[in-house]
Specification:
The chain is α+β, with helices and mostly antiparallel strands and about 200 residues long. Strands 1, 2, 3, 4, 5 and 6 form a six-stranded mixed sheet that branches. Strand 4 and strand 5 form a beta hairpin. Helix 4 packs across helix 6 and helix 5 packs antiparallel against helix 6. The longest helix is centred in the C-terminal third of the chain and has 21 residues. The protein is globular and about 45 Å long.
Length: about 200
């Protein structure tokens, strides 16, 4: 039996899933729309409050890992067990992070297996409705192409530092070295975005 992605050793994970940055793919938007409709076709629509394309693949012209990030915000009273079971029927069977309850969040993957990446890869961030910084960050980079370019250059430099060994890709065995290296930039820009866009995504 093949291993689950979460069962791969640190060495196996890094070999199977190298960090790849590519130019923006014009198909990302269409791939997101198709997958959004797939998600809405299997879950109870009453449980879904918002669904959004987030991450670098949502930003025109920005280099990105070829992964479609989707933020699914759900009602706090929904049956989460059933929701996750329904999502498995369309391929979201891999939980990539430890599920947390306060705040509730779980990260699901589609298009990843112990054989590597498929042509289309999706990360589904399932959370309760909230004022999430990812939405503000996305909007700010779309509105400020100069900041988006700076972010792209930062990502390229981080990848070079990982490849040269200056930055550890999997500190403590977790594949978050790349994300942690971007964190201060993301936090700074997210604060600027929340100031510019005020309470755009704050739940009513």
């Amino acid at each position: 039996m093949k291993k689950k992605v979460t069962e791969l050793t640190q060495e196996e994970f890094q070999k199977t899933f190298p960090i790849i940055l590519t130019e923006h793919n014009q198909n990302y938007k269409e791939w997101y729309e198709v997958e959004k409709n797939n998600i809405l076709s299997v879950v109870d629509k009453n449980d879904v409050i918002r669904i959004n394309h987030i991450g670098s693949s949502a930003i025109e012209g920005l280099i990105a890992k070829p992964i479609i990030d989707i933020l699914l915000e759900i009602d706090g009273s929904c049956n989460v067990t059933k929701l996750l079971s329904d999502l498995k029927t369309i391929g979201f069977g891999e939980e990539l992070s430890t599920r947390t309850e306060d705040p509730f969040r779980v990260l699901l993957a589609k298009g990843m297996s112990s054989d590597g990446f498929s042509e289309k890869v999706y990360f589904l961030h399932v959370r309760y409705l909230g004022d999430w910084k990812e939405l503000y960050f996305r909007d700010f980079l779309i509105a400020h192409p100069d900041v988006a370019r700076e972010y792209g250059e930062l990502k390229e430099n981080i990848l070079k530092d990982i490849e040269s060994g200056k930055i550890e890709r999997m500190p403590n065995g977790q594949p978050n070295g790349y994300s942690q290296a971007k964190l201060s930039f993301v936090e700074k820009v997210s604060m600027m975005a929340k100031e510019e866009f005020k309470e755009r995504y704050k739940p009513c």
